[in-house]
Design a protein that fits this description.
The complex is a heterodimer. Chain A is mainly alpha-helical. Chain A contains 18 helices and three strands. In chain B, helix 8 links the parallel strand 7 and strand 8. Helix content of chain B is 35%, strand content 22%. Classes of the chains: A mainly alpha, B alpha/beta.
Chain lengths: 444, 296
């Protein structure tokens, strides 16, 4: 009230003014300090983000720096004469004979003919070791596929040994004393000769993307692990998505609010925090020992990862269902829909983006999981590409673990390359989650 | 707004009846605010719904107490009263929407076509088709206008084929006075309409399943005066075919659209009567205080 008629109110107004002036004074005094605090606060935030970015950059540079060279591989060109005497002495083209023939001998004789001056047993051995064992497998495969090649000279690029590969990639010091090198002086000389004749070169490493694991780095690939990961994830998704969504829907929409529901809820939340290796032990005890399912199989891996992923999916789905406004449910129930119809036609579609995001994040977790799979034998050395969920296989993160454990220098870059592949998958999955969320997102 | 203190809030039933009887004997004199027994005739001839002794509890708290009220045929019953008086709670009893609230318990008898719809043996799905509801905030489904209307008939299997469904959608929208505005954009989302259009869409959605009674829970409280006028006009038209119970905060609205008015106060049904009588000559002190704006 601004009534200035009476002196009484006048003093009151003065009093109010005085008080407000004092308040402003006090506020002004503290203002500089407040602003400094604000600036500091923002600086801390920026610093935190900067640190995070630095760590991320270090991680990526280190991985890419180590791993990019694994995408190329050194190959040596050989002109191999497929000697009928060695491959098929009877000339019957019998598959069994063809498959059992001494193709290594062919490679060796080719190498001998390329370097006729090599005579001593020891030198020959050194010479043979320049080329990977994979060369003979390659020739065998070609001959088996096309027996017409017998008697002809086959000109082909075969993978070089991993030590040669390392040298070509500059990861071996030529100037180190001979005793400190994996390649001896003579071998270096031969390699130089090959390089002069353009018989050795680096090419894109298709083996890395098509082969299974191998003891020889130059023959090792991630395809086996990738297929194993894929099969495991399929099992995980097929089980955890329907079970998780159904559980979330029941708990959120239909379960009576009583103690039992509370206990279930608490347990699901706790399950999300259980260390993953415990799920591995459980899988070992229940699925393998009790039910007698095959070990190392993607089926078991999928079952174990389902147990691990379920809480994530249930919690995310419940949050998504909870965020659907009750007015939508009421609207559906109001026109006479049963709770199930309201759920299927309206609530679930609206919750779907959230559910999908949760599921994909759960799947990404499962894709990167190693520990529980070690327990159920997916850590075995498996060369063959799995063709089904019962075949023994390994998965990408376990493959990385295995390679990181290997002593050969060439496995270092393969480890990093495998990490790059795994990260690519993870980023792709997260991107998919974002796209799906944007796509299904609707306003209400 | 001011809060009033009610001296006789915890009166015994006996006292209550006694005083009420005395007042009734007294004739036209205004009933004292201490009396919490319903004044006026709660019944009508040939009611569409008849509620007897309805009590609603949220957990231990009683929200409405011993309500008796008839919903007549082809009439609009308005329910007015201050916030928290239980008028919406009562409305939601009429199609069992309170079932969806945890810890909500409804006792009493709601007779409709000779059946007690409040009994556990009644299936709420056909009931809600029979007694439709329009909510305070327009809540169209985040789907197309067409789908909004078609949902009800589809889940109840009211249409044999697409053509029939199209017809239901068209007539429902026409009856809700929305057809001319949306006929060219039936595939557009219902949420893209204006507030008033959305509310008429919700009304169309309700009448698409051919209900007999339409419940409206403050249908205009989120709308501007022009949209409100349209809805009120619509309510008046719908009265020809349906029985309507409407909860409203606006006394003017109650006066404009309804034939009978019920005044609720703190869970009690204080007075029921012809709308004209309630607004011109209230018989209970509380009703008078409310409609004259002494509290609200």
């Amino acid at each position: 009230m601004n009534n200035t008629d009476t002196p009484n109110t006048n003093t009151a107004v003065d009093d109010v003014e005085l008080k407000s002036r004092r308040t402003i004074e006090i506020v002004n005094r503290g203002l500089a300090k407040r602003k400094a605090a604000e600036r500091r606060f923002r600086f801390y935030g920026k610093l935190a983000i900067f640190m995070g970015m630095v760590f991320l950059a270090v991680l990526f540079t280190s991985i890419v720096g180590n791993g990019y060279s694994a995408f190329v591989q050194t190959y040596v060109k050989l002109d191999v004469y497929i000697d009928p005497q060695i491959v098929d002495p009877q000339g019957e083209r019998d598959q069994e004979v063809l498959s059992g023939a001494n193709y290594g001998g062919l490679v060796k004789s080719t190498l001998r003919s390329m370097f006729p001056e090599v005579k001593s047993r020891r030198d020959k051995k050194a010479l043979y070791s320049l080329v990977s064992n994979g060369a003979s497998y390659d020739i065998r495969q070609r001959v088996m596929e096309n027996p017409e090649l017998i008697g002809q000279t086959l000109s082909l690029w075969v993978p070089a040994d991993d030590d040669v590969d390392m040298l070509m990639k500059g990861k071996m010091d030529r100037d180190a004393p001979e005793s400190d090198r994996r390649l001896k002086d003579k071998q270096l000389m031969w390699i130089d000769q090959l390089a002069e004749q353009n018989l050795i070169e680096k090419r894109f490493n298709t083996t890395f993307f098509t082969a299974g694991d191998s003891r020889d780095p130059e023959l090792a690939g991630i395809w086996g692990a990738a297929v194993g990961s894929f099969l495991t994830l399929i099992v995980t998704l097929a089980l955890s998505f329907p079970i998780g969504v159904a559980a979330a829907v029941y708990l959120e929409e239909f379960a009576p609010k009583n103690r039992l529901t509370d206990i279930i809820e608490v347990n699901i939340n706790n399950l999300a925090a259980v260390p993953s290796i415990v799920f591995g032990l459980l899988g070992l005890a229940v699925f393998i020992n009790f039910f007698g399912l095959p070990r190392s199989a993607p089926l078991i891996g999928g079952l174990v990862l389902t147990l691990m992923t379920l809480p994530t999916i249930i919690i995310a789905s419940r949050a998504a269902l909870k965020s659907v406004p009750p007015s939508i449910r009421e609207a559906a129930l109001g026109v006479g829909a049963s709770p199930q119809q309201a759920m299927i036609y309206h609530v679930l579609p609206l919750a779907m983006p959230g559910i999908l995001t949760g599921t994909i994040i759960g799947m990404a977790q499962a894709l990167g999981e190693t520990a529980p799979l070690l327990m159920i034998g997916m850590v075995a050395f498996i060369v063959d590409i799995p063709s089904g969920v019962f075949d023994p296989s390994t998965v990408l993160p376990v493959q990385i673990f295995l390679w990181a454990d290997s002593p050969e220098r060439a496995f270092v870059e393969r480890t990093s390359a495998a990490i790059m592949v795994l990260l690519t998958f993870l980023i792709a999955m997260n991107a998919l989650a974002v796209v799906l969320r944007k796509r299904f997102e609707r306003r209400w | 707004m001011q809060t009033i203190e009610l001296s006789g809030d915890v009166m015994t039933e006996a006292e209550n009846t006694q005083e009420f009887g005395a007042e009734k004997a007294g004739g036209t004199a205004t009933v004292s605010r201490d009396v919490r027994q319903t004044v006026g005739d709660v019944t009508v001839n040939m009611p569409r719904m008849r509620c007897k002794q309805i009590n609603v509890y949220y957990g231990d708290k009683q929200a409405i107490k011993d309500i008796n009220l008839d919903i007549g045929r082809n009439e609009v019953v308005a329910m007015i009263g201050p916030s928290g008086c239980g008028k919406s709670t009562f409305l939601r009893c009429l199609n069992r929407m309170n079932d969806t609230i945890d810890g909500c318990r409804v006792t009493g008898e709601i007779m409709m076509d000779g059946e007690d719809i409040n009994s556990n043996s009644i299936d709420v799905v056909p009931l809600r088709a029979q007694v439709g509801i329009v909510f305070q905030k327009p809540n169209p489904f985040p789907k197309s206008i067409y789908e909004n209307i078609a949902f009800g008939p589809r889940i109840h299997g009211l249409a044999k084929d697409k053509a029939e469904l199209d017809e239901i959608v068209e007539t429902s929208l026409k009856r809700a006075g929305l057809w001319e505005e949306v006929k060219d954009r039936l595939d557009q989302p219902g949420t893209g309409l204006s507030g008033g259009q959305q509310q008429r869409l919700c009304i169309a959605r309700t009448i698409a399943v051919n209900p007999e009674v339409i419940l409206m829970d403050e249908p205009c409280s989120a709308l501007d005066p022009i949209a409100t006028a349209k809805i009120e006009e619509l309510i008046d038209e719908l009265r020809q075919e349906y029985s309507i119970a409407i909860v409203t905060h606006s006394m003017q609205q109650a006066a404009r659209v309804s034939q009978r008015t019920a005044y609720f106060h703190l869970g009690d049904l204080i007075e029921v009567g012809e709308t004209k009588q309630i607004f011109t000559n209230p018989r209970h002190q509380l009703t008078e205080d409310y409609i004259t704006g002494r509290f609200g």
